[in-house]
Automatic annotation (TrEMBL):
UniProtKB keywords: Carbohydrate metabolism, Glycoprotein, Golgi apparatus, Membrane, Signal-anchor, Transferase, Transmembrane, Transmembrane helix
PANTHER family reported for this sequence: CARBOHYDRATE SULFOTRANSFERASE, CARBOHYDRATE SULFOTRANSFERASE 14
Enzyme Commission number(s): 2.8.2.-
GO CC annotation terms, alphabetical: Golgi membrane
Keyword Heme belongs to the record: no
Official protein name in the record: Carbohydrate sulfotransferase
Taxonomic lineage of the native organism: Eukaryota, Metazoa, Chordata, Craniata, Vertebrata
Top-rank taxon, per record: Eukaryota
Subcellular location: Golgi apparatus membrane
Any Pfam family hit: Sulfotransfer_2
Family, similarity comment: Belongs to the sulfotransferase 2 family.
Membrane topology: Single-pass type II membrane protein
Keyword Glycoprotein set for record: yes
GO MF term set: sulfotransferase activity
Length: 256
């Protein structure tokens, strides 16, 4: 009950985060709060097509996450208030642990910039004699320990809790879609905003390796239980608000 009920009631830093994550389509009168690792690149493609900056959602270009997109945070307070009150607002969510594993595998397994910026520091901090690492060998446990020591509000957006990114108590979303029903939910939203019928939510890229339930269980069952229990508290609002079950990490289950 004590949660802020409007973006103007949020502390300045939290307000800045949510306004920076709300993308605007004035033409179709909607706001979309993007959450990294929850198909946000495809939604950004759709926004660019709707705005005429891209001719098709299937264009095989590397995604530019800044250009040709309009962010609510770049507008004046009265323009922000008008859109929050009158536009259709939506967000897409994902099982929190699955999202974290996806971010871990992608950022530390494939992206040099993240290995150098975060990986080197994580290994140095949590591994004896970790000073020689290039940041490309961060273990999942080390990553989770790093998350435990980070303040949620200061985290990188790829692992910041969805609650902190999109503030679902302060912004009244009309629709909360899920990664698990991605195509159905996305096409429902496109209908709601009356987007042209030729626009369909893009299929997953062929190179994309999704996190399967088995992969997630493998990682969780091979991680200290205490670490996971502590981490669940940090992401508990994402689990409870979006109705995701807490992971089963009992020894009986892990033995299977």
């Amino acid at each position: 009950r004590a949660m802020p009920r409007s973006v103007w009631e949020l502390p300045a830093g939290q307000r800045r985060t949510v306004l920076r994550h709300l993308l605007v389509s004035d033409k179709y009168r909607f706001l979309y709060c993007y959450v990294p690792k929850v198909a946000c690149s495809n939604w950004k493609r759709i926004l660019k097509v709707l705005d005429g900056a891209l001719e098709s959602v299937d264009v095989k270009l590397k995604m530019d996450h800044k250009s040709d997109l309009v962010f609510l945070g770049d507008m004046k307070p009265d323009e922000i208030s008008y859109r929050l009150k009158n536009y259709y607002k939506f967000i897409f969510v994902r099982n929190p642990m699955e999202r974290l594993l996806s971010a871990y595998r992608n950022k530390f397994g494939e992206i040099k910039e993240y290995q150098q910026k975060y990986g080197v520091e994580i290994v140095r901090r949590y591994r004896k004699n970790g000073g020689n690492s290039a940041g490309d060998d961060v273990t999942f446990s080390e990553f989770l320990r790093y998350l435990l020591d980070e303040e949620a509000e200061r985290m990188n957006e790829h692992w910041m809790p969805i609650y902190n990114l999109c503030q679902p108590c302060a912004v009244r979303y009309d629709f909360i879609g899920s990664y698990e029903r991605l195509n159905t939910d996305a096409n429902y939203v496109l209908e709601q905003v009356q987007s042209p019928s030729f626009i369909r939510f893009p299929e997953r890229q062929s190179w994309y390796k999704p996190v399967t339930a088995e992969t997630l269980h493998y990682y969780l069952c091979n991680t200290q239980r205490r670490l996971i229990k502590e981490l669940l508290l940090k992401y508990i609002l994402d689990f409870s608000l979006f109705a995701y079950p807490l992971p089963n990490i009992t020894s009986e289950f892990c033995k299977q």
